[in-house]
Amino acid sequence: MTAAHFHLALNHIPLLGILFGALLLAYGLWRGSSDVQQASLGLLAVAGLSIIGVYLTGEPAEEIVEGLAGVSHDAIEAHEALGTYALVAGLLTGFASIITLVRGTIRGRLNRGSVVLTLVVALAATGLIGYTANLGGKISHPELRTEAPVSQSADGEDADESDIEHE
Length: 167
Hints:
The chain contains six helices and no strands.
């Protein structure tokens, strides 16, 4: 496996883990379940800290794909520019979860304010990491880029090269 493959495989963990952890935490708050809140905080801690692996494989992945046909240099730069912010958001989520869990263990109960703050951080991180991932998807998927033209024949069907007349 190459660094690009690792980067693509790992990037789903913080994005989906934080999303599902935040949803589970919101459910735990709504139901008043300390057990559900603790489980979701554990998930958020692991998912948030997993962004370190995604970040560390980013630069080596760039080195592999930057010269390939169909790869957008502009998309790489946009994705890379937000990568550091996504790292910080994931780490904040992980550390907020750990601190909330540790404080809850020491005190014998979770502090609702800390849990709510962790939920807000997790939701913000989900948005930022999701946007960063979306930009990453545009690197080698021209169909996701807004500037990628889609040619269609007169009958509304997608045209292939044989359908296009050359003058």
